[in-house]
Amino acid sequence: MSKLGTLGARLHRGEVGYDFVGNRKIWYGISILITITAIVGLAVRGLNMGIDFQGGAVFTTSKSTAVSVAQAETYAEEASGHDAIVQKLGNGSLRIQIAGIDTDKSNQIKDELAKDLKVDSESINADLIGPSWGDQIANKAWQGLGIFLVLVVIYLAIAFEWRMAIAAFVALIHDITITVGIYALVGFEVTPGTVIGLLTILGYSLYDTVVVFDSLKEQTKDITKQTRWTYSDIANRSINSTLVRSINTTVVALLPVAGLLFIGGGVLGAGMLNDISLSLFVGLAAGAYSSIFIATPLVADLKEREPAMKALKRRVLAKRAQAATAGESLDAPVDDERFDDDESEDGDAAPAVVGPRNQPASRNRGRGRPSGKRR
């Protein structure tokens, strides 16, 4: 068994672990700092909205041309007065995208481009997108995102409880804000592919969160019938028991996305891959972080406010103080048999058993057995 597999097994059994919940204020502070940076970047730089959202025109040459991409960008910006994005296609032709222009001037821009590129005007294909169409696309994107979040909250509230639904919602907003802020800081173009990437990474984020929540729900059944573990203790164990699984799935998902972003978009220059690959890369990383460091610690914070959980915490702390005074230890791994051994007949919490149990000798052992050596 590999070292990682051995570590995962020990984490699952509770033999080792990191106190994620106990250090939650550190994670909250880091997330707040990153979120504020993203919001500032979004407010200062804004999003570089693509042509699908703000309207414009896309000119594509039907024949290859010797003009470089940089020179074509200069020609397009001079002809339109707006920033242009130029991509060289596989057959050597050029795709010139100019956002925010008046579609009535498209023919004039097309003629000027044909003159600068030294091609026939009829060989340039123009696709026009009006600003009203861009507004419709943007509104539909926001509506889709809002419906998605509402359905997620309703499902989690039914499948788990409202506190977990709130924590998952906060984690999703955290992931969206960071991803959108990174887009603003980097300056990548926002396209429909970006929206698809956002919805995709929200699904990945929910997957990791639901895995931890399911483990937490299973391990906290009858939690008030024992005096050994608080809700935060079990929440921390749930994170540790699924930690290796979350890391493995995230790394496996990030590897191909990193190939699209850094090799496809960066090395090979396929700029059209940047819009979706950046949202996937940032969102997957943020989703894995939020499911471990934000969602579950937040659930523990909300649950610890309940009167029953407060009473349980007082009993657990009193039990630990008593054990510490007696020189005993309560650091044994959590028993997978739930909490049945600590449940008393009247339903109250019975003292937790500390240390190994000694089986009592049977009173009838040896009775009726003939004395002497066996033959």
Could you list some keywords that capture this structure?
alpha+beta, 375 residues, 6 strands, four-stranded antiparallel β-sheet, disordered C terminus, Alpha-Beta Plaits, Multidrug efflux transporter AcrB transmembrane fold, 2 domains, elongated, two-stranded parallel sheet
Q: Beta-strand level of the residues, as a percent range?
A: 5-15%
CATH domain class of the largest domain: Mainly Alpha
Cα-atom radius of gyration? 30 Å
Relevant CATH superfamily of the largest domain: Multidrug efflux transporter AcrB transmembrane domain
The largest sheet is: 4 strands, antiparallel
Instruction: Report the principal-axis shape.
Output: elongated
Strand order of the largest sheet: 3-4-2-5
| Total separate domains | 2
Structural class: alpha+beta
At a glance:
By secondary structure, this protein is α+β, with helices and mostly antiparallel strands. The protein has helices at residues 3-13, 24-44, 51-54, 69-80, 106-117, 131-159, 162-186, 192-219, 231-241, 243-267, 274-303, 307-325; strands at residues 48-49, 56-61, 84-88, 94-99, 124-129, 189-190.
Structure notes:
The chain is α+β, with helices and mostly antiparallel strands. It has 2 domains: 3-49 and 133-303, Multidrug efflux transporter AcrB transmembrane fold, CATH 1.20.1640.10; 56-129, Alpha-Beta Plaits (2-Layer Sandwich), CATH 3.30.70. 61% of the residues lie in helices and 7% in strands. It contains 12 helices and 6 strands. The protein has helices at residues 3-13, 24-44, 51-54, 69-80, 106-117, 131-159, 162-186, 192-219, 231-241, 243-267, 274-303, 307-325; strands at residues 48-49, 56-61, 84-88, 94-99, 124-129, 189-190. The strands form 2 sheets. It has a 4-stranded antiparallel beta sheet with strand order 3-4-2-5. A two-stranded parallel sheet has the order 1-6. A hairpin with a 5-residue loop joins strand 3 and strand 4. Helix 4 packs antiparallel against helix 5, helix 7 runs antiparallel to helix 11 and helix 9 packs antiparallel against helix 11. The longest helix is centred in the last third of the chain and has 30 residues, at 274-303. The model is unreliable at 332-375 (pLDDT under 50).
